[in-house]
Design brief:
- The complex is a heterodimer of chains A (330) and B (322).
- Chain A is mainly α and 330 residues long.
- Chain A has 2 domains: 71 residues, no CATH class; 233 residues, MetI-like (MetI-like fold), CATH 1.10.3720.10.
- Helices cover 73% and strands 1% of the residues of chain A.
- In chain A, helix 5 packs across helix 8, helix 5 packs parallel to helix 12 and helix 11 runs antiparallel to helix 12.
- The longest helix of chain A has 38 residues.
- Chain A is globular.
- Chain A starts with a helix and ends in a 16-residue tail after the last helix.
- Chain B has 322 residues and is of the alpha/beta class.
- Chain B has 2 domains: 225 residues, Rossmann fold; 79 residues, no CATH class.
- Classes of the chains: A mainly alpha (330), B alpha/beta (322).
- Chains A and B meet through helix 9 and helix 10 of A and helix 2, helix 4, helix 7 and helix 8 of B.
Chain lengths: 330, 322
C-alpha cells in the first residue's frame, strides 16, 4: 500500500510539473509580458531595464524553476487587470465554485444511484421507462439550454427562485458560505441542478447497466439459493459490485463538474472561479489563466489519486501487497 | 413418507412461437439421507428440474403443472418470501462454477456468517465460531485464518469446498448439487464428490446430484434418474440401472462409455441427437433413435411404470408387443 501510495504521489508530482510548464509557457507565447507592464511609448532602454529588473532575461529553465517554486507557495503573481494578487482573487472566488460543485456532486450521487438501482430492479415498470426516457433528454441537451429553460420556468414564469447571483453570503473567517442563509440556499438550487443534470443521468444509466449485469452473475444466483433476503442481495452483494465503474466515472466527472461550472457560472452570473476565468480570457489576463489552469489540474490529480485509492478499498483483488493464496488444489 | 416428492412436474417457457415444455411430467421422490443422481444429455431438463425444486427458475421459465412436496408440504406454490426462507434452510444448492459462485468483494467468513444468521438467529460471535467449524468440516486448513480471506485467495477446489460449506451451513435436509465438479480439475473432482458424500451422510441430508458423468453417479448415488428430452426415461437403484438398464436409452448411454481394454475402431454411439424442445417427436421422445422401436412408439407416449426394482417409461414394458 505504501509503495503504491508513493508511486502514485510521484506520478502526481510529474503531472503537476508538466502542467505548470504549460501554464508557464502561456506567459511567453501570449505576447511579451514586458509590453503589458511598460507604457506604450517606453523606449527600448526602459523596456530592457524592466526586463532586467524582473529577471526576464534569465535562462528559460531558471524562470520556470522560479515559477514552480512560487506557485507551490500559492504565489501566481499579480493580475494584469485588477492589479491584485492572483492568489487573493482565487481565494475569493474559490468558495463559490466549491460549494456549487459540491452540491452538484452530492445531488448527482444521491439521486443517480437510487434511481439507477430502481430502474434496474424494475426494468419494465412505467416509472422506470419514463426515467429512462427523461435521462436521455438529460444526457443529450446541452447544459446551457437546460439552464436557460430552468431560469425561464422557475425565475421568469413562476418567480420562485433567483435567476442569478449567490444570494447573501456569510464570512466564516476564511470562507464565504452561501449555505447559512435562506437566499444563499435558494440561489444554489437552479445552478447546482443545471450543473448536476448531466452527471446525474450519466450515473443513473451507469448504475442501471452495471446492476443489470451484476444481477445476472452466478454469485447473485447462489446468494438467492442461500436464501438471503432480497434487500441484502440487491443492496449489499449487487450494489458493491457495481461501484468500481461508478467510482471511476464519478471521479472523472467530478473534474468535469469543475470544468462545466464555467458554463453554469456564466449562465447564472455565479461569482466563482469559472466566471473569473472567462473574464481573464477576455482580457488576456495571463497570470489568472495560468493559476486557474494549475488549480484545476491540481484538483483533477487529487481526485484521480483518491479514485485509485478507493478502488483498493472496494475491491480486495486489487490490494497488491496482501499475501496471496497459498492453497493449491483442494 | 419421502423427504421430497415431485409429482408430474412441468416446467414451461412461454416464447413467441408458443409454450416450450422443458420438463414434462416428471415424477420422482427422494428419501431422507438418500443421494439421487440425475443424468442425461445437455438440455435434457436435469438442471431445470433442480431449479424448479429450489424455486429458482429463470424467468420467463415457470412451473406449468404438478406438485413439489417437502416433508409432505407443498412448496411449489409458496410466496416468494416463504420460498426464500425454504432456500438455504431446508434445501441447499451448489452450482457448477465455484469460481463465480462466491461474491468476490466479501470475505468467505462474511458470506458464511450472513447465511447462518439469515436462517438461524444467533449472535455474530457464535455464527463466526460456527463458520470456522464449517470451514474445518469441509477440509480447509487453518480455518481461523482463512475465514477472513477473500475468494480470490482460494484455489478452485478450495472455493468449491467453501461453496459446499455455504450450502450446508444452515443445515438443510436436501442439497441440490448441479454439476458440482464440472468446472474442476479431474484430480480435484473426486475429492469434492467424496466430501459432498461424507457431509451428507454425516448429517443424514439427502442430495440430488445433477451430472452427466456416469462415473460420479456410480460412485456416489443410491438411485439414479435418467432424463431424456425433458422426460424421465428410467429411475432405479444405481447398480442395477448401470448394469442392467431397462430403457433402451439408458442402455445406449451405458454402451457409449468407452472402456479400458482393446481399443475399438469407433466409439459406440447412439445414432442421431436429442430433439430440440420445439420438435419433440410424437409418442416416445426417443423413438427415432431407438434400436428397439416398434410401431406404437411413434404415436403412443409411454408412462413411467414399475420395472424390476425401479421404473421405466418404455412401451416394451407396457405389454404392447407386436
Amino acid at each position: 500500500m505504501l509503495v503504491f501510495l508513493v508511486r502514485r504521489l510521484l506520478q502526481a508530482v510529474m503531472v503537476m510539473l508538466a502542467v505548470a510548464f504549460i501554464a508557464f509557457l502561456m506567459f511567453r507565447y501570449l505576447g511579451d509580458p514586458v509590453n503589458n507592464i511598460v507604457s506604450q511609448d517606453a523606449t527600448q532602454e526602459q523596456r530592457e531595464e524592466v526586463r532586467k529588473r524582473l529577471r526576464l532575461d534569465d535562462p528559460l529553465i531558471l524562470q520556470y524553476g522560479r515559477f514552480v517554486v512560487n506557485a507551490a507557495q500559492g504565489d501566481f503573481g499579480v493580475s494584469y487587470r485588477n492589479s491584485r494578487p492572483v492568489s487573493a482573487l482565487l481565494a475569493e472566488r474559490f468558495p463559490a465554485t466549491a460549494e456549487l460543485v459540491l452540491v452538484a456532486a452530492i445531488l448527482s450521487l444521491a439521486l443517480g444511484i437510487p434511481l439507477g438501482i430502481y430502474t434496474a430492479l424494475k426494468p419494465r415498470g412505467v416509472l422506470s421507462q419514463g426515467l429512462q426516457i427523461l435521462s436521455l433528454v438529460g444526457i443529450s441537451l446541452p447544459t446551457f439550454v437546460t439552464g436557460i429553460l430552468l431560469i425561464l420556468v422557475f425565475s421568469v414564469w413562476l418567480g420562485w427562485l433567483p435567476s442569478f447571483g449567490r444570494g447573501d453570503v456569510i464570512d466564516i473567517g476564511w470562507w464565504w458560505t452561501g449555505f447559512l442563509t435562506a437566499t444563499g440556499l435558494k440561489a444554489l438550487i437552479l445552478p447546482s441542478f443545471m450543473l448536476c443534470l448531466f452527471q446525474l443521468t450519466l450515473i443513473m444509466r451507469l448504475v442501471r447497466a452495471e446492476m443489470l449485469e451484476v444481477l445476472r452473475a452466478d454469485y447473485i444466483k447462489f446468494a438467492r439459493a442461500r436464501g438471503l433476503r432480497n434487500r441484502t442481495i440487491h443492496f449489499r452483494h449487487a450494489l458493491k459490485n457495481t461501484l468500481i465503474p461508478v467510482v471511476t466515472i464519478f471521479g472523472l466527472q467530478l473534474g468535469g463538474l469543475i470544468a462545466f461550472a464555467i458554463i453554469t457560472e456564466t449562465v447564472f452570473q455565479w461569482p466563482g472561479m469559472g466566471a473569473l476565468f472567462i473574464q481573464a480570457v477576455n482580457f488576456t489576463d495571463v497570470p489568472v489563466m495560468a493559476a486557474y489552469l494549475v488549480m484545476v489540474s491540481l484538483l483533477f490529480v487529487i481526485i484521480n489519486t483518491s479514485v485509485d485509492l478507493l478502488y483498493n478499498v472496494i475491491d480486495p483483488r486489487l490490494r497488491t501487497d496482501q499475501t496471496r493464496a497459498t492453497g493449491r488444489g483442494a | 413418507m419421502a423427504l421430497l416428492e415431485v409429482e408430474n412436474l412441468k416446467v414451461e417457457f412461454p416464447t413467441r412461437k408458443g409454450v416450450l415444455t422443458a420438463v414434462d411430467n416428471v415424477s420422482f421422490s427422494v428419501e431422507q439421507g438418500e443421494i439421487l443422481g440425475v443424468v442425461g444429455e445437455s438440455g435434457a431438463g436435469k438442471s431445470m428440474t433442480g431449479a424448479a425444486v429450489i424455486g429458482l427458475l429463470e424467468p420467463p421459465g415457470r412451473i406449468g403443472g404438478g406438485q413439489i412436496r417437502l416433508d409432505g408440504k407443498r412448496i411449489d406454490n409458496l410466496s416468494p418470501d416463504e420460498m426464500r426462507k425454504v432456500r438455504g434452510r431446508h434445501i441447499g444448492a451448489i452450482f457448477q462454477d465455484p469460481l463465480t459462485s462466491l461474491n468476490p468483494l466479501f470475505t468467505v467468513g462474511k458470506q458464511l456468517i450472513e447465511t447462518i444468521r439469515t436462517h438461524l438467529p444467533m449472535p455474530a460471535a457464535e455464527a463466526r465460531k460456527r463458520a470456522i467449524e464449517w470451514l474445518a468440516e469441509v477440509g480447509i486448513p487453518a480455518p481461523d485464518r482463512r475465514i477472513d480471506q477473500y475468494p480470490h485467495q482460494f484455489s478452485g477446489g478450495m472455493r468449491q469446498r467453501v461453496v459446499i460449506a455455504l450450502a450446508l451451513c444452515a443445515e438443510p435436509r436436501l442439497i441440490i448439487a448441479d454439476e458440482p465438479t464440472t468446472a474442476l480439475d479431474v484430480s480435484v473432482q473426486a475429492q469434492i464428490i467424496a466430501l459432498l458424500k461424507r457431509v451428507c451422510r454425516e448429517r443424514n441430508a439427502a442430495a440430488i446430484l445433477v451430472t452427466h458423468d456416469m462415473g460420479v453417479i456410480a460412485e456416489t448415488a443410491d438411485r439414479v434418474a435418467v432424463m431424456y428430452a425433458g422426460r424421465l426415461a428410467e429411475i432405479g437403484p444405481v447398480a442395477r440401472v448401470l448394469q442392467k438398464p431397462s430403457h433402451p436409452y439408458t442402455a445406449g448411454l451405458m454402451g457409449s462409455i468407452p472402456r479400458i481394454g482393446p481399443r475399438p475402431d469407433r466409439l459406440v454411439q447412439i445414432e442421431g441427437s436429442m430433439p430440440r424442445l420445439t420438435d419433440i417427436p410424437k409418442g416416445c421422445a426417443f423413438n427415432p433413435r431407438c434400436p428397439k422401436a416398434i410401431a406404437e412408439c411413434h404415436h403412443l407416449r409411454p408412462e413411467l411404470r414399475p420395472v424390476a426394482d425401479g421404473a421405466a417409461a418404455c412401451l416394451l414394458y407396457e405389454g404392447v408387443t407386436q
